[in-house]
Design brief:
This protein folds into two domains: about 55 residues; about 90 residues, no CATH class. It is about 40% helix and about 20% strand. The protein has about 170 residues and is an alpha+beta fold. It is built from four helices and five strands. The protein has a five-stranded mixed β-sheet. The longest helix is centred in the first third of the chain and has 27 residues. Helix 1 runs antiparallel to helix 2. It holds the Pfam family DUF2518. InterPro entries: Uncharacterised_Ycf51 (IPR019664). This is DUF2518 family protein. Keywords: Membrane, Transmembrane, Transmembrane helix. It comes from Brasilonema bromeliae SPC951.
Length: about 170
């Protein structure tokens, strides 16, 4: 993944190319070249490209990676305060805690809305178990509650439902 410093380097090169296209466009008008309007279009495109690269050099594009987190899928999201993720039935409590932290980091967004009464994002983790053939039962293993107003939430609470892990199928190794 590119770093902001690399985007800044590309912005500089793109800025130089933009200036070259602008000089060529001006020369096209002075000497009445047939491609002068194409050069104006190319210069405009280079301006937009340079502006985009500059914007990418300002904002970090890094994603926080929590060690020990396992793969999860989002199965429900109301766009506000409630999210449900699903995990593998072979997950351990420590992996679930790391996965909930990862989901809390990944699913945080300034665009989520909450009410005055509930300004917290609740992410619940579940898995599907099959107690009998052709019967599927969702089993909620834990949840995390984090602030909707602050990216760095020091008051994040994680609950792991230890009693639910006893209902998971035991794998034989």
């Amino acid at each position: 993944m590119l770093t902001p410093a690399e985007f800044l380097k590309y912005t500089q090169w793109s800025g130089i190319a933009t200036l070259v296209f602008a000089v060529l466009a001006i020369a096209g008008f002075v000497f009445k070249w047939g491609i002068r309007f194409r050069l104006v279009g190319s210069t405009g495109f280079m301006v937009v490209l340079t502006g985009g690269l500059f914007a990418l050099s300002l904002a970090p594009l890094s994603r926080t990676v929590i060690p020990g987190a396992v793969r999860y899928s989002r199965v429900y999201d109301n766009g506000g305060t409630q999210v449900v993720i699903t995990t593998s039935p072979q997950i351990t409590p420590s992996e679930l805690e790391a996965t909930l932290r990862q989901a809390a980091s990944d699913l945080y967004s300034y665009g989520r809305f909450g009410t005055q009464a509930e300004n917290q994002l609740t992410i619940r983790a579940r898995t599907i178990i099959h107690p009998e053939p052709e019967i599927s039962v969702p089993l909620y293993l834990g949840q995390v509650k984090r602030s909707l107003s602050s990216r760095e939430d020091s008051q994040m609470t994680i609950e792991i439902y230890q009693d639910k892990f006893a209902q998971l199928p035991q794998t034989t190794s």
